[in-house]
Design brief:
Chain lengths: ~290, ~300
């Protein structure tokens, strides 16, 4: 029926592309177990031992065994702090952008109002301009705004307003809203209005109709929008880079700062952890979705 | 009757969109306009902004330079034009390579038995969900002088008894290209898959009945029908490649300076916000022009949502 699926070319290309996608990740994870601290060549796994035994840059024995670098990671204050920041930014921005984005999707799909075209265009802008442009814009805004406010209010020292968790979270909300809106809108697009009409004919008011009929039906769309917002926030580097301040380092920012100076198996351990957590989370979500269907 | 009841409530619709407008105007429109205002300004000695109206920053990007080393008052310095050109060609090359790699894979997934498709797609997504910076790091480990490739080549050379000089792969334009392709490949696979999957298989029967050979069927049926996916993927790849500075910073070192690096350095090292703002707006206009003409020529598919 379609002769191309069995063509050797397509098969070979598929295998090669999957190899290209996975080889770097496999190498990354393998080196998280490296006995060599400099992490240049793979020097074998780390054996268990009562105490930590080092020989030059080689780890001869560790209480954590092959998971030595994972233990080091857990002890690393900067990493745990950055992980906390990353998660709190991701949770807050996901919650807020999902609510706001869903509201926007309902408005655009259901209502006619002033500024509708303007809203639609402004929601497309973050998708068609490079992220750095938005990041720079927000940086310029906050620097000008804060210097103005600081001098107006006469703030000095620690009271001065500056970049930090708040500015990062607000920016994450801003770049997530368009994606949530698009996903929920796609769900609303093929929506059968007769259910809502039936509910209202039976005497439910609009509020009840929304929560008892509309919302349960668009919930899968809202959830996939939230999932998208969460991954976008976790993964974001560029906008965070320009809007972050002292004490608001996220994991990607921390890793980037580290990589410019040194290469250590701790980064590999962090990567391995990251990959496994994401893999398991996505797998769990897929299972959940399949069960619902 | 109900429909009119709902849709004649502009106030409700406006209230629903209001929070979105607050964020979009506050953290997108106003920042962009402020960037424009700052780009006409001048850098103050302490790294702040003096608001004036001068086109000097834009002229500087075009190669107009003051205080030349030769002692003349004004001279031509193509440095920034070269950076812009390098960014465009890199984005173009990355996009072409990504299409070449993504198409067969997307095709294979779209034509695989339905029960395999989810798993195959899932396998495309997993690398994409590992962190962006971490993926660049993986390529640092592979490409550096003592990296995996040189290690493997050295071993082969040793077995064959040939003298081996490690290849310098990290901190080259090639490394940046590979890194970019790796980073953005999944963004092309998903939209192409979506448009290929939609193709009605009876099209193929019709083509075969009419005597088209497989190659001709591909060129006349499959390829045109999958163009919306390719277009959407191109935007999802081209736009971020134009603005990324992490890949070139970590894999290109000082060798490969792109617009993204230029902008980043103006804000964080040189503390010249006006010049950085001008560069940022030039980058935005360049990508908008390219995507505008590209989508006008090929249309804008809803496949962009799929990714």
């Amino acid at each position: 029926m379609n002769p191309y699926q069995r063509s050797w070319f397509v098969r070979l290309a598929t295998i090669l592309v999957y190899f290209f996608l996975y080889a770097p990740i496999v190498i990354l994870i393998l080196f998280a177990f490296n006995a060599s601290r400099t992490n240049i060549t793979f020097q074998g796994f780390i054996p268990y031992g009562e105490r930590l035994v080092m020989e030059g840059s080689l780890v001869r024995a560790s209480p954590c065994g092959p998971f030595h670098w994972f233990c080091e990671l857990a002890k690393n204050r900067e990493v745990t702090h950055a992980a906390r920041n990353t998660l709190s930014i991701a949770f807050t921005s996901t919650l807020i952008s999902t609510i706001i984005g869903t509201m926007a999707a309902l408005a655009l799909q259901r209502y006619e109002f002033r500024l509708k075209t303007f809203s639609q265009i402004s929601l497309y802008i973050p998708i068609v301009i490079p992220e750095i442009v938005m990041g720079i814009g927000i940086l310029v805004l906050f620097t000008q705004l804060f210097s103005l406010l600081n001098s107006l209010l006469g703030l000095s020292g620690d009271a001065r307003l500056g970049l930090g968790l708040g500015t990062v979270t607000a920016s994450h909300i801003a770049f997530s809203i368009p994606f949530v809106t698009l996903v929920v809108q796609a769900r609303l697009h093929g929506f059968d209005k007769s259910y809502e009409e039936a509910a209202m004919d039976l005497g439910a008011n609009e509020w009840v109709t929304f929560w008892r009929v509309t919302f349960p039906m668009i919930l899968p769309g809202v959830l996939s929008g939230a999932l998208l917002a969460f991954t976008l926030s976790l993964d974001d580097f560029v906008i965070t880079f320009f809007t972050t301040g002292p004490g608001a380092t996220t994991l990607p920012i921390y890793v980037y700062g580290l990589l410019r100076r040194i290469i250590t198996p701790q980064v590999n351990a962090l990567s391995a952890l990251w990959v496994s957590v994401v893999f398991l989370a996505v797998l769990a979500i897929q299972r959940l979705e399949n069960r619902q269907v | 009757m109900l429909r009119t009841l709902r849709e004649n409530r502009p106030l409700q619709g406006f209230l629903l969109i209001l929070p979105t407008l607050v964020f979009m105007v506050g953290l997108l429109i106003i920042p962009l306009m402020l960037t424009l205002v700052v780009s006409f300004g001048r850098r103050s000695p302490d790294g702040g902004v003096i608001f004036t109206f001068s086109l000097e920053n834009y002229l500087r990007l075009l190669g107009y330079e003051r205080n030349c080393p030769s002692g003349e008052a004004v001279c031509f310095n193509p440095l920034y034009l070269q950076i812009l050109w390098r960014s465009i060609t890199l984005a173009f090359n990355t996009t072409v390579l990504v299409i070449v790699l993504a198409y067969p894979l997307a095709y294979y997934i779209a034509r695989a038995p339905a029960r395999w498709r989810t798993a195959l797609l899932f396998m495309v997504l997993v690398p994409m969900w590992t962190n962006f910076v971490i993926r660049v790091y993986a390529w640092m480990m592979i490409l550096r002088k003592e990296g995996v490739i040189n290690l493997a080549l050295g071993w082969v050379a040793h077995q064959l008894g040939i003298p081996f000089q490690p290849l310098e792969m990290l901190y080259t334009p090639g490394a940046v290209l590979v890194g970019m392709v790796y980073e953005f490949l999944p963004f092309m696979i998903l939209p192409i898959y979506t448009s290929l999957e939609k193709i009605d298989l009876s099209m193929y029967e019709a083509a075969a009945d009419l005597g088209a050979n497989p190659w001709r069927t591909f060129l006349r049926v499959t390829l045109p029908l999958s163009m919306p996916g390719v277009v959407a993927g191109t935007i999802l790849v081209f736009v971020p490649v134009m603005g990324t500075f992490v890949v070139s910073d970590l894999l290109g070192g000082r060798q490969v300076v792109l617009v993204g690096n230029l902008i980043q350095r103006q804000f964080l090292d040189a503390r010249d916000a006006p010049f950085g703002s001008a560069a940022s707006l030039v980058l935005m206009v360049m990508t908008l022009i390219v995507t505008y003409f590209y989508t006008r020529k090929f249309g804008f598919g809803e496949e962009i949502i799929a990714a």
